[in-house]
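Re: Re: C-alpha cell formats

Sure, here are both.
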Amino acid sequence: MTNTIRLNYPQHVVSLTMLEAIEVLKSGPFGVFLTFNDPRTGELVQKLFPFFYRPHNTYGLKGRCFVSEWLGLPVYIPSDLSLFIEGQQDLNCQTRFLIQEGGFLCAGDYKNETFRLEFLTNIRVDTTFDTDFLELLSRSGHGHLATDVPPGRAGRGESATANRKNESVVS
C-alpha cells in the first residue's frame, strides 16, 4: 500500500504524497461529494461540498474533522487523509459512511437528530462550488466562498494584534 493520494483537478488527476497533498489542500477550498438525508426536512442531499484544510477538534466520536454546512446544518468529514488514501486504493472502500448528530431549532425547541452521511474518497481541487446553500461559509455575500476575514473583524482564534494590524497609531 503506497502513501499517495489522488487529487482530482477539472481536467486531470495528480498523485501526490500526503505532505504534498496537504500543501495543495491548504491553498484553497477542496470538494468532497456528500450524500445524506437532511434531518430537518427528510430531503435527500447529494452535492459537492467545499471544505477548507483547517481541521477542527470535535468532541465525541468524530475526533478531528473538516467542517462544511448545508443550509446552516454543519456536516463533518474526518480530517485523516489516510482514510481517503485507503478508499482510493480499495475499490470496495471508495464510499465511507458516518453517523452524525445535527442540532437545529424546531418550533422554538432545540432538537438533536442523528443522520447517516455518505462521502466519496475522491477529493476535487481547483473547482467551482454552488454557494447558494452555504449560508455561513459564504459570508462574502457575492456568491464566492468567504476565504478571508475583513480587517477589524477577526473571529475566534485570532489574536487582538490581528484586529489592530490595519489600524493607524495616533500619538
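Second one below.
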Amino acid sequence: MEGNNRQQRERSEERSPETSPMMVPATQPRSSMFSCCLWMASDEPVDVPASNVTQDPIVKPPTRQSHVNNPDTSERIIRLENTELQVLSAGAKRSNNTPLPGQPGHSNTKKDTRGDQDGRNKLNQGSSQNQNQDQKIKFLINVPMWVPLLDNNRTQEQIQLQLVQNLLTLLEGTGFKEEDKEHLEDVAIIIGLNGKDSPELRKQLSMLMNMKEKTVLKFKKISFTWGPKGDIKYEDSINKKKDTPYTDIREYLKDHEETKQLVRELRGQDPDALIYFSCIDADTVSFNQVYSSYLEIVRKHCNTHSGIPPTVMSTGYEFPEGDFKKPSQVDRMTRIQTAKHFPLGTYYPEPNFCVLLLKGEDTLTESFLGKGKTMESPKCIKKVKDRDEFIAVFTADNPIITSVPARCKVNKDGLTTAQSHYNPRVWATSANIHGEIKSKLKGRGSSGKTRGFLMELLTCPDEEFENKCKELPVVKDDAFQKLCEAAAEVREYRKKVREDESRQAESRAKQPEM
C-alpha cells in the first residue's frame, strides 16, 4: 500500500481521497515494489450497525486525564503523548505541547482496551509481566524488491549494486546509532526479488540470485514472479490495467521457508527473544538509525507496562531534503498527533512498521491478504489486533527516509501531497482504516457520508467542535472518545502549522528584493 519499491507502485497515488471516494488503481508500473506514498482506501467500510448506544457526555480532549492503575506502585499512571507513560501522582495534568513539523515530539503509547488494563496477563506474544531487562530484541526485515529488466542504460552489475548490495550496505551504515552497532547481529533480512512473469525476467532473476553480496548481516534473497504463469498466480484485473498484487507479494515473502529459517536463526540460543517482523520498502534512502529508536521504544514500553512490549509500532517515513520534506513531516506529525489518543486511528505505512511475532512462531501468523491487492498494513493489523493483548504505537522517534516517487506532487499550499493526513479527507479515511469506529449509518453511500462527518471534526469552527462530536453517527464507545480526543489534538496542530506558515510568509514579505 504505502510503499520501492517505487518502480512498481507510485506512492503519490496513495489512493488519494481528493480524487475519488473509490480506490484509485495504479496507471503505470512503479520503480519500486512498494512506494512511500499512502494509497488510501477511501471506501473502507464503516457502516457497522449500532447496538446499545449510550449517550456519554463529551469530555473536551485537551483537558482530559486518562489514568490506569500501576500494578508496581501505589500511584497511578497517566497516559501521555507517544511512547512514554510517566508515573505521576493522581490528578497530575498532561502537557499539551504540540511540536511543529521537523521538531522532535514526545513519545507515546496507549494500551488498547482489550486485555488487562494493568498488564498482568501473561502474553503469548513474546513476553510476560516478568520481563527480563536483558531480554534480546531482534528484527526480521522483510523487503519486497522489484527487479527492472536489462536495457542499454543498465548493466547486470549496475542493477545488482543498485538493488541488493545497496540496501545491505545502507542497513549496515544507517540502521543503528554507532553505539548500537553491536545489534547488527540481532538483525536478519529477507529480500524478495520479483516482477511480472516473463522469460526475460526469469533469466534476470536467475543471474541476480547467483551474484554474491558482501555484508556482515544475516540475509537471504529469494526470487519469484507474478502473473498468469508466475509463482504467484495472478490475472490482470477486468479493466485490463496492469495491477500489481502487493498483498500477495508480501504474503509470499512472509510465508517463504527462507524467511522462517532466518527467524529460527535469530531465535538460536535466545528462545525468549522479542522478534519484530519489520516491513521495509526497497527505495529507502536512509534507515536514519530507526532500529536504535525501536530498541529504545520497546525498552521504555516494557518498563512502563509491566514488561509488555508494543505489538505494532511505527515511526513513519519522511522524504529527503527538498521541496517534499516539509509536506512529509506535516503528514507524519499529523499521524503522530492522532495516535497520541487513538493509536489505531491512523495509517501505519508499509515503508516502515513492525509487528511482534508470537512466541515460538517462525513468521508472522496473521495475513496481509483481504479484499483488493493493496493496503497490506491495515489488512494485517486488523487481524493482529485480535490478539489477547494488543498495543499499537506510532511515535515521533527517527523515521525512515525514503525517496520521492516520480509522480508525487506538492499541492498549492506547499504543505501537503495528495496522500497527506493533514488533508481532512485522508485523515477521516484513516480514522477508521482499522475498523475501530462503528457507524450507525447503513446502506449505499453510508461510508462516504460517515467520512464526511469525520472530516467536519477538523474543518468546523472551534465553537462547533463539541456539537460535531455529539452529532457523529457512530456508536459512542471508547473508540468514539479516542477519536474526538485525537481530532482535538490534530486541530491544535493544524493551527500551529498555519500560524508558523503565516509568520514565515510575513518574514519573506519584509525581506528586500534582490
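The first strand starts at residue 5 and ends at 7. Confidence is low (pLDDT under 50) at residues 3-96, 102-124, 126-132.
- S.
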